[in-house]
Amino acid sequence: MKTIVIKEVELNGEPTDIRIEDNLIKRIAANLPEEADVVINGRKKAVIPGLINMHTHSAMTLFRGYGDDMPLMAWLEEKIWPNEAKLTHEDVYWGAKLACLEMIKSGTTAFFDMYTKFSSTAKAVEETGIRATLSSVCFDFFQPEQREKAKAHIIKLFGEKDNYSRRIQFALGPHAIYTVSGELLQWVDRFSKEHNVPVHIHLAETETEVQSAVKRFGCTPVRYLDQLGMLSPRLMIAHGIYIDDEEIQMLADTGVQVVHNPASNMKLGSGVAFKFTEMRKAGIPVGIGTDGCSSSNNLDMTEAMKLASLLGKGWRKDPVVLTADEMFFAATVQGADMLGINAGRIEEGRLADLCLIDLNLPAFTPNFNFVSNLVYAANGSCVDTVICDGKILMQNKRVPGEDEIMERTAAIAYKLVVK
User: Fold this and answer.
1) How far is residue 310's CA from residue 91's CA, in Å, rounded to a whole number?
2) Which fold has domain 3-49+344-402?
3) CB 73 within 8 A of CB 129
């Protein structure tokens, strides 16, 4: 059994010690004995739960800064999809490994991913030590032949899920209602129900998507999924900007969960008026995501918390809403609950997924309110140490092998996008 003791770290404003045994937080108290395999000096540091990124496309680190400042559909059709068609398993492995590195360095210990070549991303997750829910992304573009291929691929991947460690969970990832037919969506929902696995989908992201849905299906995206019988606690919607009050109640009544992605929503010009407050008041769980690096350009959840708060205050013209505490809750407790993992809190018996924050920085000086400083003043570079599943992934802001990961991924990306 591996043991770690963190000495004199700040928790809720007070210095304390934390003992970790195997992958769990065993004891939180002052003056714990130092007998352990590893003792970490926590002075001038604060401990937080590992942040949870609820919507990513990890290997899209390969396209960071490529095809910027374009409309969503033009960006997808002209820049992203043609280059994604070239991706090999090796490409996705290194792109995902870079994403895991970036998330570790900025304090994320778990993420919900949607991308192709499931096994390559899983390999990167296994090697870097982070935690992930990986969705088997599917498209059929309304083609019956592609639909059957998608089903067979999902069945194959599901059959392989037990080959991975306890840190990896399986999910289904139908891309969107404009790339996946109603027939495949309903099959995915049945598969999800039969095997009790979550479904992750882009929905109501742009005005164009809503207008197209009304024209093609005779109703808005949420109502379309309702007609298909897909609204359930297993469903997780990414974006959900264009959802009216009646639809919010529909989602609440059926237990659907939603992920807010403020950076990509702004960068792609998708929209700003995400109804975070209304959804939360209705009882809808709302997490925070970064989206992929080609549409948000980084995977920094500290930045995502700040953007979610400021964006919500801005479009509402209300400085009281979307507080730092609400954003921190969404990025920790809420994310863990949405993923169904025993994390998101620093408590005895919880998974040892936690980060030490360097307080010896201008962003935490003065430190009247730690959470406020973390959300509004700091960024991911304030993270000093990351522990996931009871293992130290980063200490003193260094991750073993990080230079090789960056060099290899950059070389792959440059070759990939050469015309």
Assistant:
1) 35
2) Urease, subunit C; domain 1 (2.30.40)
3) no
